Amino acid sequence: MGLAAGPALADKSAELPDIKSRSAVVLDMSTGAEVIGKGADEVRAIASTTKIFVALAVRRKKLALDSWTEITAADVQAAVGGSRTRLDRGQQFKNIDLLRAMLMSSDNRAPTALGRAAGMSRAQLIAEMNAVAKGLGLKKTRFTDSSGLRGNVSTAREMALALRALLRDDVLAGIVATPNVIVKSRSGYAKISYGSTNQPLVAGTYRVKGGKTGYTKAAGYCFITGAEIDGHSYLFAFLGADGKGTRFADFGRVAAWIDAGAPGAVIKRTTPGKARPKAKPARRKVSGTSRR
Fold it and tell me: What is the Cα–Cα distance from 207 to 255, expressed in whole angstroms?
């Protein structure tokens, strides 16, 4: 049985996990029902979790995964102000690898390159990202930038629902469930090792399905992820954490709370949670930055 949240949660607040992030929500993945929330509908900056929508937008435009795309001056300019990139100007990469660079390690040159590969200018990509949000019924999500470095707002709840849409795409789900990958340029000049910034995925304590991290000064540290706990799937969103590790610690506290039966929840699971053995991250085969 899943878990539900309601007024009764507040009556047993001492039993609830101590969430440090400014906004957070956990949703039942299948129904979207809220398990626990903290400022779940507050509008906040979302940093590089923005890239969930870039991926959805280019997939909707039928991006050719095995085609090659060159990193241009426009991509360099779009990434100004972000962390170190590893995609050199003038090098060509397969689009599937640009998706990996963007979703696993948050490379800021990838979004505009992917948009161009899908036939969109930067402005058209941003418009398509807004169209994706509208199509998902996300009323508080707005985009003015393709990387998440500037502008872009949403809520913890809407970001969790966006991740659910991404995880329903087998290609994208396979990428975000991958701990590490080697990306090569067409010339062979570049051979880049990318590792996922999703620490719970890499740690393997829970069966993490994958997600996205992000950071800017305005947004704080953000983390959106899906995970299976005791055979049931959940969506987690943490926005506005003060420390890089705080968002992951929040995930650990909430996951342990669910695993223990979620004391204080309106509906308890029929089987009490047990300590989970360390599990290997779920993997799917897929053909074909800044670290956050």
Answer: 11
